[in-house]
Write a structure and sequence with these properties.
Elements lengths: L9 H7 L12 H6 L11 H20 L5 H19 L6 H9 L10 H15 L8 H10 L6 H16 L3 H14 L4 H16 L37 H35 L8 H10 L3 E2 L9 H13 L4 E2 L8 E3 L1
Antiparallel strand pairs: 1-3, 2-3
Helix pairs in contact: 3-11, 4-6, 4-11, 5-6, 6-7, 8-9, 9-10, 9-11
Organism: Mesorhizobium australafricanum
Protein name: DUF1403 family protein
InterPro entries: DUF1403
Length: 341
Amino acid sequence: MILRPKPAPRHYATLAGATSAAPMAMVPTWLRRAIPDAQSLAGKDVEDIALAAGAAITTLDAVVRQQERWAGAWRQRLALSAAAATAKQAGRVEDERALRDAVLLTRPGDFLSVGPAGLLLLAWRRLATRPRDELRTEKNLAAVLGEFGYAPDDEGVSDLADDLRQLAAGSGTVATLTGTFMAAERLGFTHAFGAWLADALLAQRLGWAHAVPLLGTEATLGMNPGAPRRAGRVVAATGIEADSDRAKNLLAAQARAAMRAIDLSAELGRRADRLLAVAPKLRAKAADAVVDKLLSDDTIVASEKIAGMSDRGLRRLFDRLVELGAVRELSGRPTFRIYGL
């Protein structure tokens, strides 16, 4: 008699999809060693740093193209880190927990109540959740500039959109990266907004459906946020003379950011596997919808309305998931609790 493995329950098979089947991208040791920190750039050539950055982005590209079920939570977690770093660079005191509270505990649609730091989180979430081709539209650029605290005029937004179209059409990766920050600097924007634009253009160049927030966590990106506006337009990427020090700084920052994103993907992948492994034990009728939302969002508020579940039913489900080690309570509070991978 041939013994065959017992098939997985249909509930689990439906939820799991390809999450556990696709192998995570492996990062070779040489690559981690090849990525310089901000203090070790002086003795390195642009070509060497570009090689390491290209390898890091290629590895990240493999993660993105796996299209894992938890990719939404991954991108939003990266957006939160970028927002926290951006807020700190702007002299604000809000950390990741405070930023989550500002957005999650605000009534839907009441965006003005999230405060300046909360708007920064909305800007980075916009990058992580909107379709790639929508990011460079004038309407979206005007909205994200408002979230970064600017009051853009129509002409400035139009100029920026034109610059980005030329940069996206260019053939040089290094020149495109450098030119993006030149465009932001020319218009008097901070390096944080330049990082947002660079991440959007990287998604365009690589054909990703959604951008991955990367450069927002880097404190030094080779541009002078206090520089005066310069006359003239940013020409096509193939015509930009890339400053060597700036290029090295930006490439190294992009490589470091890509590596952090890869490491976070491995961590969240393990947590998602745990969630999917315990999913068959959940008896709540809307458990599938809750699991889907945990995989697609950074966090869920315990009082959120999901598939008609009552507050009490949702809290019981989250208590069960915490007990099973499948999710974490991230607020540390007895009330207004927040849950996520």
